[in-house]
Design a protein that fits this description.
alpha/beta; 8 strands; 16% strand; binds 1,3-dihydroxyacetonephosphate
């Protein structure tokens, strides 16, 4: 069984178009293992320019950080999957905890977004993860399973294998506190078992599950070394080309 190893950078609301293109070019140009899929999620304003900048670089793809669930229409300020596709986007991050928390995105809404992304032949990077108080109450596994069931498990086996799952414990995002390799592995293994139960082992074994939350060059190797951790969704450290390239080389 060989799953795709992925290093994905979520730039969040950072960089200007100029800085984003500079960052993307620096990463795309750098020597790195070509079997690792590199994904960069830039802000909407520079997706087109970043797409140009990474053109021709092997195994480098572009992601958006969100999309609307409708194809088009009167949704002021929103962006459609067709729009994203037209500028070279291949992946869409959905259900990031910052979207769930600040923009009140529910599992039900995310399920609709997942459908739209898949219908348009793009791939969702579906995020899940618990708050600290949920973990302290030892309800984290149950909590994450509910997010997956409600957001993803309406999909068929053929559809779900196109999804990348990212486990991002909220208490580890932007805090400098990383989940321990054991904590990450525990949750990733639970997610994979759940996928096997809901679908089958083959499906479970083919889906990449990424860890996110203070991934840095110093901890990437040990995290990516866990049996069920197939890579990372990286925030802060993806904004520095040297750090991100080091993370890409940590498999
Ligand atoms: P940090 O790597 O900055 O903790 O952010 C993680 C994240 O939210 C990626 O989506």
């Amino acid at each position: 069984m060989s799953r795709q190893q992925i290093a994905a950078g979520n730039w969040k609301m950072n960089t200007t178009p100029k800085a984003g293109v500079r960052l993307a070019s620096a990463i795309a140009k750098r020597k790195r293992p070509e079997d690792v899929l590199v994904i960069m999620a830039s802000p909407f304003t520079h997706l087109a320019a970043v797409s140009e900048a990474i053109k021709g670089a092997p195994n480098v793809k572009l992601a958006a950080q969100n999309c609307h669930q409708s194809e088009s229409g009167a949704y002021t300020g929103e962006i459609s999957v067709d729009m994203l596709k037209s500028v070279g986007v291949s992946y869409v991050i959905l259900g990031h905890s910052e979207r769930r928390q600040y923009f009140k995105e529910s599992n039900e809404l995310l399920a609709a977004k997942v459908n739209t992304v898949l219908t348009k032949k793009l791939k969702p990077i579906f995020c899940c993860g618990e708050e600290l108080k949920v973990r302290e109450a030892k309800r984290h596994v149950r909590y994450v399973k509910k997010q997956l069931k409600e957001g993803l498990f309406h999909l068929s086996a053929k559809e779900i294998v196109k999804v990348v799952i990212a486990y991002e414990p909220i208490w580890a995002i932007g805090t400098g506190v990383t989940a321990s390799p054991e904590q990450a592995q525990e949750m990733h293994a639970e997610i994979r078992q759940l996928l096997a139960k809901q679908y089958n082992q083959k499906v479970a074994d083919s889906i990449s599950i990424l860890y996110g939350g203070s991934v840095k060059p110093a901890n990437a190797k040990v995290l990516f070394g866990q049996a069920d951790v197939d890579g990372g969704l990286v925030g802060g450290a993806s904004l520095k080309a040297t750090d991100f390239v080091q993370i890409i080389k940590s498999f």
